[in-house]
Design a protein that fits this description.
Shape: globular
Structural class: alpha+beta
Order of helices and strands: EHEHEEEHHHHHHHEEHEEEEEHEHH
Organism: Nostoc edaphicum CCNP1411
Helix content: 25-40%
Protein name: Xanthine dehydrogenase family protein subunit M
Strand content: 15-25%
GO molecular function: FAD binding; oxidoreductase activity
Keywords: Oxidoreductase
Largest sheet: 5 strands, antiparallel
CATH architecture of one domain: 2-Layer Sandwich
C-alpha cells in the first residue's frame, strides 16, 4: 500500500480547498471502499482528508421531502423512522447492503461513490479501461456472470454496485454538491454516466467537489426494494429492482422503476413505467411491463439468465407493492 498523509478538517471550505490544491488528495469518511482500493493498488492518494467533523450527518424533513446529509451512516438512515415510514424502499435497500458492521461505518455519500466490483477492475494484473484507458476490458472476453445486460459498451461492461443508488433513482433523488466556486444540484439519473468510450469517468462529479447531501422529493407512492443474490447476506445483486407506485382504487396512476446489478448505472425502466400508467393492478399487467423492461437487454457470454431474473424480480416487486403477493 502506498504511504499517505492524513488531515482532519472542520469546514467544507478547507476540505475542498485542500483537495483542490493537491489532485492526488481524496476525501474520506467511512473509508470502507476507498481503503480497500488503496490496499489493492487500484487507487492512490497522497493525502486523505477526513470529513467526519463536517456538519453533514443530519436527516431533515421539510415541506417538499427529506434531505439526508452525505456523511450520515447507512445504519442511521436505514432505521430512521421517517425513512422507514415514507421511503421504505431506501431502508430496505440499505439493510440488504453490506454487513451490519460496515453499515455502521459507511456513509451515504460514500455508498453512492463506491467503485465497481468487477474482479478485473480490482486486480491490477488484468487490463482494465477504468484503471488505464485504452488497454482493454478483460471482462468482455473473461468470466462475466455478474456484468451488464444494459448500457454497456465495447470498453466496459461492469455494473454499478450500490443498492441505495437504485432506490434513490426510483425516487428521482437529487445529489447536492459543493465545489470551490458554487453549489450544484444534479438529478441522480444524470449524475451517473454510461461508459461509452470513457469508462474511467463514472459520474459528473468534478475534481475537488464534495457531495454534501441527497434530497428526495415528497410523494405518496408505495415502494419496495427486491434484491436477488447468490446468498442471503453480504452479497452484491445479480439483479435488483426498486419500485414506487402511486395507486388509486387498484389503478396505477404513476410508476417509477429502477434496476440494479444489470448496468453501469442504476437502470431506469422508462418504458415499463409509461406502460403501467393508468393500468389495473393484476398479473397480466405486471407481465406485460416486465416484457417491456427487458427489450433492450444485450447479455454477455455468461449472464443471459439475468434477463429472466429481471422479469421475475419486477413482477414480484410490483405484486408486493400492489398488494397482490
Amino acid at each position: 500500500m502506498q504511504p499517505f498523509s492524513y488531515a482532519k478538517v472542520a469546514s467544507e471550505e478547507v476540505a475542498i480547498a485542500t483537495v483542490n490544491q493537491d489532485q492526488t488528495a481524496a476525501f474520506i469518511a467511512g473509508g470502507t471502499d476507498l481503503l480497500g482500493l488503496m490496499k489493492d493498488g487500484v487507487q492512490t492518494a497522497n493525502i486523505l482528508i477526513d470529513i467526519n467533523s463536517l456538519p453533514l450527518a443530519d436527516i431533515q424533513s421539510h415541506a417538499n421531502g427529506i434531505r439526508i446529509g452525505a456523511i450520515s451512516r447507512m445504519s442511521d438512515v436505514a432505521f430512521h423512522p421517517q425513512i422507514q415510514e415514507h421511503y421504505p424502499v431506501i431502508s430496505q435497500a440499505l439493510l440488504q447492503s453490506a454487513s451490519p458492521q460496515l453499515r455502521n461505518m459507511a456513509t451515504i455519500g460514500g455508498n453512492l461513490l463506491q467503485r465497481v466490483r468487477c474482479g478485473y477492475f480490482r486486480d491490477p494484473v488484468f487490463p482494465c479501461n477504468k484503471r488505464t484507458p485504452g488497454i482493454g476490458c478483460s471482462a468482455i472476453t473473461g468470466y462475466n456472470r455478474m456484468h451488464s445486460i444494459f448500457g454497456a459498451s465495447e470498453h466496459c461492461i461492469a455494473v454499478h454496485p450500490s443498492d441505495l443508488a437504485v432506490a434513490l433513482t426510483a425516487l428521482d433523488a437529487v445529489i447536492c454538491i459543493q465545489g470551490t466556486e458554487k453549489a450544484r444540484r444534479i438529478s441522480i439519473h444524470d449524475f451517473y454516466l454510461l461508459p461509452g468510450e470513457t469508462p474511467a469517468k463514472e459520474t459528473l462529479l468534478q475534481p475537488g467537489e464534495l457531495i454534501v447531501a441527497i434530497e428526495i422529493p415528497d410523494f405518496a407512492y408505495k415502494s419496495h426494494y427486491l434484491k436477488v443474490r447468490d446468498r442471503a447476506s453480504y452479497e452484491f445483486a445479480l439483479v435488483s429492482v426498486a419500485v414506487a407506485l402511486d395507486i388509486e382504487q387498484d389503478i396505477i396512476k404513476s410508476a417509477r422503476i429502477a434496476f440494479g446489478g444489470v448496468a453501469p448505472k442504476p437502470w431506469r425502466g422508462w418504458e415499463a413505467e409509461e406502460f403501467l400508467q393508468n393500468k389495473a393492478i393484476n398479473e397480466a399487467t405486471f407481465k406485460d411491463a416486465a416484457a417491456l423492461a427487458i427489450k433492450e437487454a444485450k447479455p454477455q457470454t455468461h449472464n443471459e439468465f439475468k434477463i429472466e431474473l429481471v422479469k421475475r424480480a419486477l413482477i414480484r416487486a410490483l405484486s408486493v407493492v400492489g398488494g397482490k403477493s
